[in-house]
Design goal:
With 134 residues, this protein is α+β, with helices and mostly antiparallel strands. Helices cover 44% and strands 31% of the residues. It contains five helices and five strands; from the N terminus they run ααβαββββαα.
Length: 134
Amino acid sequence: MAESMPGNDVQLLAAALRRDSADLNLYAQVLSADLADSLPPGAVRVRRTRSFAERMAGREGSVVEVDVALGERRLALRTERGRMVGEVLHEVRGIVLSRRQVELDEWIEALARSLATAAATNARARAAVERFLA
């Protein structure tokens, strides 16, 4: 399976990703649980902040950023002034060549396209896509 997914499959994947995007904490759980296990180690990073009370209670804290790295594309989603803000970055060997701030819908589309491309050549990424579409 060397070619990328057909457009309809990318749209289905984007729709599946959208249904869990109501808040960043839930979205981070879905991405880190479903994607982190299926993609190469380190491809999905979740950054959290913990209040003193959360630390004392042993809780993980609130998600402030989700970062997904697939090939030369990195997608970051973070909370900024109470709303989710997405960024699409083109990165080569750790150097950011371009950075573009996008709305959540465009971020989800970019993630779906990146996952579809990765799924065409990587069995682990394909398993993540199949889990979202199931």
